[in-house]
Specification:
By secondary structure, the chain is of the alpha/beta class. The strands form 2 sheets. Strands 1, 2, 3, 4, 6, 7, 8, 9 and 12 form a 9-stranded mixed beta sheet that branches. Strands 5-10-11 form a 3-stranded mixed beta sheet. Helix 7 links the parallel strand 6 and strand 7. Helix 3 crosses helix 11 and helix 11 runs antiparallel to helix 12. It is elongated, with a radius of gyration of 30 Å. The chain starts with a helix and ends with a helix. The N terminus is likely disordered. Belongs to the PstS family. It comes from Virgibacillus sediminis. Involved in the system for phosphate transport across the cytoplasmic membrane. Part of the ABC transporter complex PstSACB involved in phosphate import. The complex is composed of two ATP-binding proteins (PstB), two transmembrane proteins (PstC and PstA) and a solute-binding protein (PstS).
């Protein structure tokens, strides 16, 4: 009896399982399949997200003070929205000083630059066994600024800018440019030799004529802004972004390149724009060996090129054409 009762119970249990399976072979099967599909997609998505979120460590960047606001903005977004476990450290020693740090054993991962890398810097990289990868980021317009109370020098010709800042330009006072202007000594200020902006100004605008030895050259751009803002007779130069973020303190000079005065703006400093003579590309240089060795460096390089046009305008740079961005992305992707 006990055995028979046991067998009956087992049979009933088996039948219940079979019925449940058969009863669920319609919509339930479809739901299960859809569920598996969703779970698979979500699982794969989660897996990729987890793999990306596993990135950690640091990305070390130095260099151009001009490029700093753009790169700092990208780094902030990356750490908040992409890789919170990665620390992106952005400094601003200046282009040339930054290259010195970049081009040494255990140097920085990236160097921001407001001028192209020089032959001697490439030679140093070759000695160290790597070839820097140039990443063109955006376009900047070198901007001549004056004190807001200066209502006479709001427009200058390209040649007048050269005359003001060169040692042999013969310009000491505003009246040396125009006899109707104040007979007041001009306070000339600009970034020092650590900065690519200085080199661009010296090489491309002054055409390698000696800079006035009395010019007040400074390391910090904030100091330059203050010097112009506090002196009615001051004139200075730096990237458009610093002017754009300090419009309440300084005023931009419109430059006449031969076809009438042109005010620097995101539109005029665009590629082939009317401000082209004072326009330059800005870069960051990547050590590709670091990108191959450290996943976070490669990931950040990709993020920079994917996102740079989203933040260029708000930090005072004209964006690059999308085809240029895509071509550079392909080069970075090929590193891994």
């Amino acid at each position: 009896m006990k055995l028979k009762k046991y067998l009956l119970l087992v049979a009933a249990a088996v039948m219940a399982i079979v019925l449940a399976a058969c009863g669920g072979s319609g919509d339930s099967t479809e739901d299960a399949s859809a569920g598996e599909s969703a779970a698979g997609a979500n699982g794969e998505e989660t897996s990729e997200t987890e793999a990306e979120a596993d990135l950690e460590g640091s990305v070390v960047i130095d260099g151009s003070g001009t490029v700093y606001p753009l790169m700092a903005r990208l780094a902030e977004e990356y750490m908040i929205n992409e890789q919170p476990q990665v620390s992106v450290e952005v400094s601003r020693a200046g282009t040339s000083a930054g290259f010195e740090r970049f081009l040494q054993e255990d140097g920085t991962d990236f160097n921001n630059a407001s001028r192209p890398i020089k032959d001697e810097e490439l030679a140093k990289a070759e000695e160290l066994g790597f070839e820097p990868m140039e990443m063109k980021l955006a376009l900047d317009g070198l901007t001549i600024v004056i004190n807001p109370e200066n209502d006479w020098a709001t427009e200058l010709t390209e040649q007048q800018v050269k005359d003001i800042f060169t040692a042999d330009g013969g310009v000491t006072t505003w009246s040396d440019i125009n006899p109707d202007w104040p007979d007041k000594e001009i306070e000339k200020v600009g970034p020092n030799e650590n900065h690519g902006t200085y080199e661009f100004f010296y090489e491309n605008i002054l055409e390698e004529q000696d800079l006035d030895p009395n010019a007040n050259l400074q390391q910090e751009y904030s100091t330059l802004v203050n010097l112009v803002a506090e002196d009615k007779n001051a004139i200075g130069f730096f990237g458009y972004g610093y002017y754009d973020s300090n419009k309440d303190s300084v005023k931009a000079v419109s430059i006449d390149f031969g076809d009438g005065p042109v005010e620097p703006s995101l539109d005029t400093i665009a590629e082939d724009g009317p401000y082209a003579n004072f326009t330059r590309p800005v870069f960051t240089y990547l050590n590709p060996d670091m990108a191959k060795e450290k996943a976070q460096v490669h990931d950040y390089a990709l993020y920079v090129m994917e996102s740079v046009n989203d933040f260029a305008g708000e930090t005072g740079f004209a964006p690059l054409p999308e085809e240029e961005i895509q071509a550079q992305l392909e080069e970075i992707e090929a590193l891994n």
